[in-house]
Every structure is written in structure tokens, then in C-alpha cells.
From TrEMBL:
This is HTH cro/C1-type domain-containing protein. InterPro entries: Cro/C1-type_HTH, Lambda_DNA-bd_dom_sf. It comes from the Bacteria. Signal peptide: none annotated. GO terms for molecular function: DNA binding. Residues 32-77 form the HTH cro/C1-type domain.
Length: 154
């Protein structure tokens, strides 16, 4: 996971289903309080083009989606939110392989007024800065299961 903003290509790879992808984009628009008008102004796209794409009346070109994604500026924490189900799958596999009481480090990042658990590591090393919580695998699984933020499961 990089420090750069999420691209349309990366989001499409993470969420192949167009309807689910649009739900996630709308959720981030709502969370960040970004309107279609603001996306239109910042991207140079016509308002109705954005409406048509978000209502799935039009597919939207790669260039259109890239412009929308550039305005949303989905970064590391949003990427973690999108990858949430995969992180829980990794936790379940590690619990099965290592046992529930193995110690782990959980990386948390600020998101709005909250801290969001972004990832975990058995070795405690992260590429990102943030608050590190120490717990066992079972506690980490409970934490990640409690905070699922997105409106759809991938």
C-alpha cells in the first residue's frame, strides 16, 4: 500500500463490480462531504456526465473516472477501508495457522475525528506512520470486525 492517492485502475481491481464500486464512491463522497457540483468544478467534467456515471446511465471513460478519483483523493486510510475484508481474511488465516493468542501490532491512522485500524503485522513493522496498538490476533480480529466502514462487502 502506497502513500499516493488511489487510482481508478486500482479501485477497479479491488472492487470489480461496478455497482459496488459506485456505492463505495458515493459513501466516500458523503463521508468527505463532496458534492457532484464540487467534483464537476474541480475536475472540469460536466455535472450531468458525473450524474450519469454515478447513476450507471453511462459507463464513463477511464479518463472520466480518473478525474473523479483525483477529486476524491482517496489515500492510505481509504485504501485500508476498501481492503478491510481482505485484512479480516488474513486475520482468520493467521489465527488458524498461528493460534489466537499470538501477539500482533495494529496500525491506526486518524480519519476525521476517529482512529481507524488500517492493518496489522505479526512482526510489528509498517511502512506507514501512525499509532501502534499491541494485542493478540483474536483481539485484532474483534477490532477489525467492529469497525467495518463501507456500505458493501467486496
Amino acid at each position: 500500500m502506497s502513500n499516493t492517492y488511489l487510482t481508478n485502475e486500482e479501485l477497479t481491481a479491488m472492487i470489480p463490480d461496478p455497482a459496488a464500486r459506485i456505492k463505495v464512491i458515493r459513501w466516500f463522497m458523503n463521508t468527505k462531504k463532496i458534492t457532484i457540483e464540487q467534483i464537476s468544478e474541480a475536475s472540469g467534467l460536466h455535472y450531468q456526465t458525473i450524474v450519469n456515471v454515478l447513476q450507471r446511465k453511462r459507463k464513463g471513460t477511464a479518463q472520466t473516472w480518473d478525474k473523479i478519483m483525483a477529486v476524491l483523493q482517496l489515500g492510505y486510510v481509504e485504501r485500508c477501508m476498501i481492503e478491510h475484508d481482505r485484512i479480516v481474511e488474513r486475520l482468520n488465516a493467521d489465527i488458524k495457522k498461528q493460534g489466537p493468542s499470538v501477539p500482533v501490532s495494529v496500525l491506526c491512522q486518524p480519519y476525521g475525528a476517529f482512529l481507524y485500524a488500517c492493518d496489522y503485522r505479526l512482526d510489528g513493522t509498517f511502512d506507514q506512520q501512525g499509532m501502534i496498538l499491541h494485542m493478540d490476533l483474536q483481539e485484532a480480529k474483534q477490532l477489525f470486525e467492529l469497525e467495518h466502514p463501507l456500505p458493501v462487502s467486496q
